[in-house]
Design goal:
heterodimer; A: mainly beta; 6-stranded mixed beta sheet; 12 strands; B: 112 residues; mainly beta; 0% helix; globular
Chain lengths: 117, 112
Amino acid sequence: AQTVTQSQPEMSVQEAETVTLSCTYDTSESDYYLFWYKQPPSRQMILVIRQEAYKQQNATENRFSVNFQKAAKSFSLKISDSQLGDAAMYFCAYRSALSTSYGKLTFGQGTILTVHP
Amino acid sequence: DGGITQSPKYLFRKEGQNVTLSCEQNLNHDAMYWYRQDPGQGLRLIYYSQIVNDFQKGDIAEGYSVSREKKESFPLTVTSAQKNPTAFYLCASSKGRADTQYFGPGTRLTVL
C-alpha cells in the first residue's frame, strides 16, 4: 500500500517571502500522479497543482511550483511571493495510475501554513 | 455554474440514528467519491463509484452505505453501526478514474 508523509505539521512565512512544504511518499509503482491540495478555513479542498510521474519537468502554476524527485520519492511545494490568502492547510496526495486503483487518493496528514503580514 | 454541492453544511445526529448526506454534481462527471476527515489526519476514502448503479468500498466503508441511481447524485448514509461518526465528510468527483478530483464544500457531522 502507498503511504504519504508530510513531516512538517506547521510552517510559517512572511508575506511576500517564499516557503517550501515537504512531502515524501512510498510506492512500488512507476506510474502515478501527485497532487497538492489546499484547505482554507472554509474547509473546501482546492487543487493547487498536479504532477504526472512520467513527466520529468516540474509542474508550475503561477506562484506555485513543485520539486519532484522521483528516485527520492519526494514532492515538495514551493510558494513564492506568499500572500495572506495562502494561509491554509496543505495536503499532499498520491494516486496510482493502475486501472485497478479506481482513482483513490491517498493523503498525507497535512501542513498548516501561517502567513504573517 | 458547474460544481459540487453538499448538504447540509452541519448535521447533528443522536446515537442510534441513521443520517444521509447529500452530494450532487453538475459537472457531468462519471466518478464520485466520499472521504472522511478527522482532526490531525488526512482524508480517507469511504466509498467510490465509477458509473451509475455501481459502487465499491473504500478503506473505511464499515458503518456506511451509498447509492448511485443517477449520474449527478451520490448520497452517503451513516448508519448506527458506525462507531465514531463525528467527522467532516467530503464528496468529490472526476470525469473519469484517471482525472483530477474536485471536491464539494463538505458536511460536518456531529453525534450528540
